[in-house]
């Protein structure tokens, strides 16, 4: 069985996994568009996102403060496997029903948060390591809808920076990145 959220994750996850698989050990200390995060730090955060949002799909409490070194032997394969589990967790229609006990938001919104983190941090990692992340139009449309509903709240809570204005020739991805506080032209 699938849901709209799991279908979008199934499209977005392999793109981010491809970026993660292409990151070499000598790139782990590079800066990223997330000012406080190196590539290593952002990979750790994204790994936590992928694992914790599986639990959130099942309405379990998560501990965002727990820090683990995920970048041990086989980490790229483990990350890929966890993204599959993330998609599977959100494929249950019950995952989208009601309000998240841990987040106090509609479960559907929590699923969109997972998609946002996976996609935007995938772009962050791609940009930091000289790669390209292609984002499919249905994923972009869903993420713009999410930002329409939750962008200001996310900014107030510190999840997003101040919006970066878009140029007239900006792509849909550039506009999305700007809405999350990222400069689409950022370079290391």
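^ structure tokens above, recovered residues below v
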């Amino acid at each position: 069985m699938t849901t709209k959220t799991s279908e979008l994750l199934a499209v977005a996850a392999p793109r981010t996994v491809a970026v993660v698989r292409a990151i070499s050990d000598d790139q782990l200390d590079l800066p990223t568009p997330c000012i406080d995060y190196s590539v290593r730090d952002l990979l750790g955060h994204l790994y936590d996102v992928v694992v914790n949002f599986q639990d959130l799909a099942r309405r379990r409490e998560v501990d965002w403060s727990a820090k683990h070194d995920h970048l041990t032997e086989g980490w790229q394969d483990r990350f890929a496997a966890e993204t599959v589990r993330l998609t599977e967790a959100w494929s249950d229609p019950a995952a989208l029903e009601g309000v998240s006990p841990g987040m106090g938001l509609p479960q559907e919104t929590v699923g969109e948060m997972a998609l946002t983190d996976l996609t935007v941090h995938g772009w962050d990692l791609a940009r930091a390591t000289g790669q390209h992340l292609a984002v499919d139009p249905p994923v972009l449309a869903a993420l713009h809808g999410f930002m329409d509903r939750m962008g200001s709240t996310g900014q107030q809570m510190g999840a997003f920076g101040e919006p970066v204005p878009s140029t007239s020739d900006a792509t849909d991805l550039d506009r999305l990145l700007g809405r999350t506080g990222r400069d689409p032209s950022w370079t290391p």
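The two ends are 41 Å apart (CA to CA).
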